[in-house]
Amino acid sequence: MKRNKFLLATLALFAGTALFAQEVEEETNSLDEVVLVGNRANNRTVVNSAVPVDVINVEDLIKQAPQLTVNDILNYVIPSFNSVRQSSSDGTEHIDPVTLRGMGPDQVLVLINGKRRHTTSLVNYQNTVGNGSVGTDLGAIPVSAIKTIEVLRDGAAAQYGSDAIAGVVNVVLKNAPGGEASLTYGQTAEGDGETYNFNGSYGAKLGKNGSIVFSAVVSERKKTTRTGDHNLDIYGDNFAYDFADDPAGARAADDALIAANGLTRDDFKFQIGDAQIRNQQFFVNAETELADRLELYTFGGVSLRQGEGFGFRRLPNEVPSESQSIFPNGFQPVLKSNVNDYSNSTGLRYKTLNDWNIDLSNTFGFNEFKYNVDNTVNYSLGANSPTSFYAGKHSFLQNTVNLDFSKKINQNVNVAFGGEYRYEKYQIEAGEEGSYKDGGSQSFVGFSPDNAVKGDRNSVAAYADLGLTFGDFTADLAGRFENYSDFGNTINGKLALRYEYAKGYSIRGAVSTGFRAPSLQQKYFSNSYTDLYVNPDGTQSLVTKGIIRNSSDLAQNVIGLDELKEEKSVNASLGLTFRPTSKFFITLDGYFIKVDDRIVLTSDITDPSLEANGVSAARIFSNAIDTETKGIDLVVSYQTRLGKGNFNANLSANVNETKIVNYHFPSSLTVPYNQYFGPDQVNIIETLSPKVKGSLNLGYSIDKFNFLVRNTYFGKVTKDGYPWGSVQEHSGKVVTDLTVGYDVTKNVNFTIGANNLFDIYPDEQVYENSYYGVFKYAPVQMGVTGAYYFARLNFRF
Predict the structure, then answer these.
(1) Measured at the alpha carbon of residue 207, what is the angle toward residues 202 and 212, in degrees to the nearest 5?
(2) Could you count the other beta carbons within 10 Å of the beta carbon of residue 266?
(3) CA distance to 14, 395, 737, per residue, from 17 (Å)
(4) In a 3-state reduction of DSSP, which class is residue 40?
(5) Which among 30, 280, 471, 677 would be 20 to 30 A from 729, CA to CA?
(6) CA separation for the pair 353, 367 (Å, rounded)
(7) Nearest to 474, CA basis, from 415, 412, 417
(8) Which bin fits 167, alpha (ψ -120 to 50), beta or left (φ > 0)?
(9) Is residue 13 part of a domain?
(10) What is the DSSP string of 319-357?
């Protein structure tokens, strides 16, 4: 059956070559568009830039493509970009981590209109992709507010500061008059995961030359369930032993007990899949002329998200007798989140009489994550336990002031320089007592007063860019000095060169140094959490563990860790660009990224010295590894007239590999290295993301019809179930998107289509990695949603 699905996908692909074209893809309609990233001169285009930049026309994509969030859009149009929804992973279910070029979520810098975007307050710690990192929530930016997205696939810390080791994502907001809106409904082939989405924007003139654009998104995505037919001994007291010795007999005996209680095995089915998410998002982008040569601009907004995800089910044999009166048949806790995000950038732009551009701005961002746990108990409270708890919250605030100067000296020289001051603050607030006392609420233990913390820091920076053109040769130079109040100074530089050796043909390359400051979240986060533990007899139990702060006495003096310091990187790239005609081009770029002192979250440390201090198992942030990443990006774009319509095609691919090349273990460490940074953590860094990913996008528009077919290949990944599972390779898969749109009138369009048309899933997990069959699929590659079908009505007014 899988072979037949692959054959159908291939046939659809080749049929699309003759019939369809895509008028919405990244480079095709942006060949001559000036980009904001790459250098601060703002006079370079996608084709003649010295470093690779993709420009995504989001306005067209949200009209036609199946994807409706920034994460999902980029995941299917930029092969070096990855974002996978996670299951049963606490807060990470509610904010999807994203990666670029196989690096961490915190090694990608996000800008809006060229201004630094704040990160979330969430630390990913559930052994998912990006474990131990703090990323930026792209899903908090309403797609209806976006004109284009620019992705700089090159190290840019020397230009933009911390977090830009892997590259930069710059979101360019709409700024033109006019209105548009869309209504979308969809659901999966399984009949769940329903989505309701409204997004719209309206722009008007503001003053003589200004504009103001209001944007909004209101959406809901309901949960999905993708659990297997689990082989759990629901009422027994030693299910692993029973099923290993006599699986058929043990299951029959267990089924008899289930029936005796008037239930079926479905009553104990785990909820495993995508969390339910509701969003309300509002943005404004405005600019107006205050006086001759003086402009005021402001943009930003609010994102309010409510999420519901599921923890591990507690079976009847796992519920203490004191709590069985509340949940006699066990229970599956529900983690509810309220994620509130606020942002604003306001500034003045002034152009002097001698053509210097001066930009003074202030950018504010705030992210708050509140937790509530429902359908749960605190075992220590027995029959009197509440079933709902407020489990606390964490928040992150960032405020950045920039003063920039730039000028085009002449046709051959551009210069830019400026300064930056940034203030950051991180806070954890304790939950109610019952959520953390004596083991706390099951599934998600609330933050205790010991976890509660307030930490802040500031940084100052000075930077300069120089762009030079000598005939067919261009050079960009950048340098940046930065001082952080909590770890000191760093100086970084970048040199990018491009030579057009024949008209339309060029060679380009860049080399740079970079850094990433340890986030305040990595410095100050601590908690207790529930995890699986392998008992000496091979059975598994749910146990409570913890993350302790790197600066704590336990980490510094007992384990012997050094204080967190910045990651240091070296980036190098070399590429070729070919543009023989205005409608056809090819870019091929190779890259190398070396990161020293990479900040990671350790495995579970169970050192006896920790137990002596009342900690059974702990994880700690540490500069534990050095990594090297090597890869190649390919982009091919072509457009032409075909019959009476317009045809275009885009082929893009990424080949990428990350390896750990060195470890930094404390000399005083008394536990095995596998416990400090074990195979499961190595797996997340090296092999849990596809090393090969490619996409072929074809489309055709004729008269009132437009068509899109897109095949995306997600390469194989390896998942290591250490310490209680095994190593499994998940083979590569092809996912097909297909949409058909019809213009009902000049201003009304109706589109239907599918993401993952042929209902492709990752390979099923081997039994030992699936928690007795519960987790049928691992959330890798394209995720575990399967086919998704939608209908959309688009309006212009």
Answers:
(1) 25
(2) 8
(3) 5, 49, 14
(4) coil
(5) 677
(6) 41
(7) 412
(8) left
(9) yes
(10) S-GGGTTT-TT-B--EEEEEEEEEEEEEEEEEE-TT--E
User: In this structure, what are the phi and psi dihedrals at residue 580, rounded to the nearest 5 degrees?
Assistant: -70, -30
Start-to-end CA distance of the chain, whole Å, equals 46
> Which residue stretches of 109-191 are H helix?
157-160
Residues 693, 781 contacting (CB under 8 angstroms): no
Give the tens place of pLDDT for each residue, 700-756: 999 999 999 999 999 999 999 988 889 999 999 999 999 999 999 999 999 999 999
d(CA 588, CA 635): 7
What three-state secondary structure class fits 686? helix
Burial profile 526-543: b = 16 or more Cβ within 10 angstroms, e = fewer: bbbbbbebeeeeeeeeee
**Residue 706: burial class (beta carbons within 10 Å; 0-12, 13-18, 19+):** buried
- By CB atoms closer than 10 A (0-12, 13-18, 19+), residue 703 is exposed
In angstroms, what CA-CA distances link 597 with 221, 473, 628, 664?
39, 36, 12, 8
Helix (H) or strand (E) holding 486: none
Give me the mean pLDDT over the 678-692 stretch. Answer: 95
**Peptide bond preceding 105: is omega within 30 degrees of 0, i.e. cis?**
no
> 466 to each of 52, 159, 402, how far by Cα in Å?
18, 11, 18
Residues 6+ apart with CB under 8 A from 410: none
State which H helix or E strand residue 136 sits in.
none
Residues in the chain: 797
Q: What is this structure's pTM?
A: 0.92
Would the pLDDT of 249 be above 90? no
At residue 125, the 3 state secondary structure works out as coil
Handedness of CA 130, 135, 136, 139 (dihedral sign): positive
**Using the 8-state DSSP alphabet, how is residue 21 labeled?**
B
Instruction: Please give the single-letter amino acid code of residue 715.
Output: G
**CA-CA distance, 620 to 637, in Å (whole number)?**
46
Q: What's the pLDDT at 49?
A: 87
Amino acid (one-letter) located at 581: T
SS3 label, residue 260 = helix
Residue 318: name the closest of 304, 338, 332 by CA: 332
Number of helices followed by number of strands (H, E) in the chain: 12, 34
Please tell me the total count of domains within the chain: 1
Confidence category of residue 8, pLDDT binned at 50, 70, 90: very low
Distance CA 520, CA 527 (A): 15
- pLDDT at site 345: 98
CATH number at residue 321: 2.40.170.20
Residue 298 lies in a domain: yes
Instruction: Provide the 3-class DSSP secondary structure of residue 500.
Output: strand
Residue 243 belongs to a domain = no
Is residue 240 domain-resident? no
Q: Taking the mean position of all CA atoms in its chain, how far away is CA 684? A: 15
Task: pLDDT band for 255, please (50, 70, 90 cuts).
Answer: confident
Q: Is the alpha carbon torsion for 6, 767, 92, 684 positive or negative?
A: negative
Q: Are 740 and 752 in contact (CB under 8 A)?
A: yes
Contact predicate 630/663, CB 8 Å: no
User: Which residues partner with 361 through β-bridges?
Assistant: 347, 402
Q: Which residues on adjacent β-strands are paired with residue 150?
A: 55, 170
Place of tokens 């000075």: 462
Whose tokens are 């095949």? That residue is 711
Sign of CA dihedral 131, 136, 140, 146: negative
If you compute the radius of gyration of the chain from its CA atoms, what whole number of angstroms results? 27
As a whole number of angstroms, the distance between CA 38 and CA 45 comes to 9
Placement of tokens 């930016």 in the chain: 141
Measured CA to CA in angstroms, residue 220 lies from 306, 751, 757, 784 at distances of 9, 19, 22, 18
What's the CA gap between 272 and 251, in Å, rounded? 22
Q: Residue 210 belongs to what domain range?
A: 2-230+269-796
Rounded to whole angstroms, the Cα distance separating 117 from 169 reads: 10
